[in-house]
Predict the 3D structure of the following.
Amino acid sequence: MSAPRHLTIIGAGLAGALLGILLRRRGWEVDLYEKRGDPRLRGYEGGRSINLALAERGRHALRAADADEAVMRHAIMMRGRMVHVDAAEPALQRYGRDDSEVIWSVHRGDLNLVLLELAQAAGARLHFDLGLAGVNFDSRVAVFADARDGSRREVPFRALVGADGAGSALRAAMHRVRDLGERSDFLDHGYKELEIPPDDDGGFRIEPHALHIWPRGHYMCIALPNDEKTFTVTLFLPHQAAAGDGPAFDQIRDTAAARTFFEREFPSALALIPAFERDWAANPVGQLGTLYLEHWHLDGRAVLLGDAAHAMVPFHGQGMNCAFEDCVALAGQLDAHPDLAGAFAAFEAQRKPDAAAIQRMALDNYLEMRDRVDDADYLLQRALELALQARHPGRFVPHYAMVTFMRIPYSLAMTRTDVQRGILERATAGRSTLDALDWAAIDADVLARLTPLEDVPA
Ligand SMILES: Cc1cc2nc3c(=O)[nH]c(=O)nc-3n(C[C@H](O)[C@H](O)[C@H](O)COP(=O)(O)OP(=O)(O)OC[C@H]3O[C@@H](n4cnc5c(N)ncnc54)[C@H](O)[C@@H]3O)c2cc1C
């Protein structure tokens, strides 16, 4: 029978590998089961979202696992959004006040490799090519399918942790014994990835220290830098065209139509993608959605975290960051509770409101990225946000900073964002420049509605 402080983690992706390190450091026995092959032997088979934006919440979790330094060797600083509209020179909208408030682009494969290496070095046992196929929760036996020969393997467990992503097999198995209250909202937009290679001299073709956006109303392209001097471009576009509602994936039937669409809508991006036809044909259209669950655990026998518990749309760049925060929270609750059922319940109570908040903010951010970043009223509100941050330091903290550079609970960031949005809208209604604003009234509004805000101590 399993040792008393033993957990079996399903999925050795981003959250699973990090949790393995955190638990080993606390003396837990850890077995990690991953349905894909060992990426150290075969290369990374991730197959989607090649690079990711890493922010303070994620970095804090990496520091807790002593993994930050190794990960940051592969990371590229992104100071802000470089917005490409029409023929104008692209302009940088900084995310924060200076280079202490930035986000980082990391390659999913590099990140996963670093975490797997550290998990193994910390003493976690890694089992590749073994996908969870079923669970008997009464006898506490998990069944894994071996991808190499199709055989089945039965493995006794004390408790399972589901870090197996949005399509979680553990969640499906738990649902058979407890209604988890699952609901998925798929977005009517999907995504496709393309690549900007290095230039002829082996350097970056466009500004490397930015997240590039080509906003086009109902759709957009973004590009994030990779440390091999490439950019991963992601096109977000509706799956199907609504009446009179512009282009959609279902209307772009072949690569020639795709090129025509890019020539019309994204000529400056197209010029950077020499293998456009190859990428378009090779890379599938990905689905995007939000997963809501009422219950994340099955007493002390199983618990879900990361995308398996609360997948979200990627428009705040927080899915992984949130999953990493989950890992720290679960490890903390395991420290605080002598029994697994108590720890899992406390973890769910702690994280569910925050996951729901970042899920909503991620949906809100899509509208902002694709439709608002080049609007005059948006730019005025953004300028006011920065001015109020300077006038009321620690009290008026811009939305993006609360989510990205701080570790206050997402739910608190969301509540304050709603209050601040009201202040910004009232202040700028009918005005077009900062000089025209009624500063005394705005200051009074800020002082009346917002208390000072402190970050969670390190
Ligand atoms: C287009 C796109 C862009 C994104 N950009 C960002 C970003 O910029 N910043 C950010 O923070 N987040 C981003 N995200 C979200 C981020 O990718 C996820 O939130 C994150 O990967 C979740 O980590 P996870 O470990 O929970 O799941 P995953 O990373 O999906 O890992 C799950 C692991 O479980 C394995 N697995 C699956 N089924 C089984 C099974 N039956 N048995 C065993 N193993 C199994 C998988 O092979 C995988 O290794 C983006 C997502 C998308 C789709």
